[in-house]
Amino acid sequence: MSDLIVIGGGIIGMLTARELAVAGRRVKLLERGRTGEESSWAGGGILSPLYPWRYEAPITRLARWSQQHYAALAEELLTETGVDPEYTASGLLMLGLEADELGQGHDWAAENGYHIERVRSRELPGIQPGLGAFAGDALWMPDIAQVRNPRLVRALRRSIDALGVRVLEQRPADELMVRAGEVVGVRSGTAEYLAQQVVVCGGAWSEQLAQTAGCSVGVYPVKGQMLLYRAEPGLLRRIVLADSRYAIPRRDGHILLGSTMEDAGFDKTTTGAAREALQAAAERILPALGRYPLVKQWAGLRPGRARGIPCISAHPQIGGLFVNAGHFRNGVVTGLASARLMADLILGREPILDPAEFAL
Q1: Is 81 exposed, middle or buried (0-12, 13-18, 19+ CB in 10 A)?
Q2: Burial of 268 (C-beta count, 10 Å sphere; 0-12/13-18/19+)
């Protein structure tokens, strides 16, 4: 019997397993497909919520803690595994904002200790040349970084393997096994995996699993489609956000463009309409992208939850059951703090943040 089972091999699950393994726990991780190949792979890797002042304070607190520790994590993973997550301080430039948003952004930054600058349109080429025309002033957050999330999940997998976490892929968790008000393990097909504690980190699939134990965690899938361009290194140097679309530069010149927000259940089919809308957004942000090849389109399923606040909590009625799910589109930026807080609760340590804000 393992001390503990983590269900879900995305960024949230692997970071949680890593925290617990470092603390000396014997961890088994069950993944329905292959580790890191769902929303953790599909997202953009921006280490900030988009329009961060639009989110409630608990999201800011999670993001802030993670942002303060991500550079060190990337360095640790590179040293441990030889895989560079490509932590890069690209900065975040937000275009086309209304006057009230400009004010809200400044007030939020002052209250929460972030560096933000108001930029006139004539000053934009000094930050990022070649941008399209957008009315009004912009907001610039030079300290915002990104990671290349496919490389991050690869590094996390190597790290937890080295720490002795037993990873079982192609093992969908079909049922939480509960007896006399206590979780005792997980059933996958005809196999039963026993453990004293279970952590649900199943992303968009967390609600389905929770219902097998007669409870709800309020998580639902939100589809997002993305595009990838192959361009020259340096064509885009900054993360640029405009009209709720974003362009993200990678070190090798690739540029990601995202993302749609669709209520489509668990359907991950890509569509021509989304491609056309995202291409139009890409060429509005950076007109030169019209000259570069579009090399890939894909879709992922974000784990949505009311108010966008994840559940990071012990279950109040089922002993030994924990949930770390519902991060919506902020799983990468809040994942590091979420994993640390989850481990704090499981291990009985002083929590890094007030857990009441994320309680089930």
Answers
A1: middle
A2: middle
Cα gap 88→74, rounded to integer Å: 10
β-partners of residue 322 are 199, 314
Please, what is the Cα angle at 175 between 172 and 181, to 5 degrees? 145
Residues 6 or more apart from 234 whose CB is under 8 A from it?
Answer: 253
How many CB atoms are located within 10 Å of the residue 87 CB? Answer: 21
Domain 2-358 of CATH type 3.50.50.60: yes
Cα torsion for 146, 148, 153, 156, to the nearest 10°?
Answer: -60
Is omega for the bond preceding 338 within 30 degrees of 0, making it cis? Answer: no
Confidence class for position 2, pLDDT limits 50, 70, 90: low
Sign of CA dihedral 17, 323, 355, 348: negative
Domain spans of the chain, in order of start: 2-358
Peptide bond into 313 cis (omega under 30): no
- Secondary structure (3-state) at 130: coil
Q: Which residue from 31, 4, 83 is spatially nearest to 12, judged by alpha carbons?
A: 31
Which residues on adjacent β-strands are paired with residue 193?
Answer: 186
Rounded CA gap, 234 and 252, in Å? 9
- Which of 18, 40, 42 lies closest to 29, judged by CA? 18
Assigned token pair, 150: 């496919």
What's the CA gap between 175 and 124, in Å, rounded?
A: 53
Task: Write the CB contacts of 80 (distance below 8 Å, at least 6 apart in sequence).
Answer: 155, 158, 159, 162
Which tens digit of pLDDT belongs to each residue from 316-341?
999 999 999 999 999 999 999 999 99
Q: What is the DSSP letter of 244?
A: T
Nearby residues of 349 by Cβ (< 8 Å), 6 or more positions away: 343
Are the C-beta atoms of residues 153 and 11 closer than 8 Å to each other?
A: yes
In single-letter form, the type of residue at position 18 comes to R
Each residue's pLDDT tens digit, 28-72: 999 999 999 999 999 999 999 999 999 999 999 999 999 999 999
Tell me whether strands 191-200 and 321-325 are parallel, antiparallel or unpaired. parallel
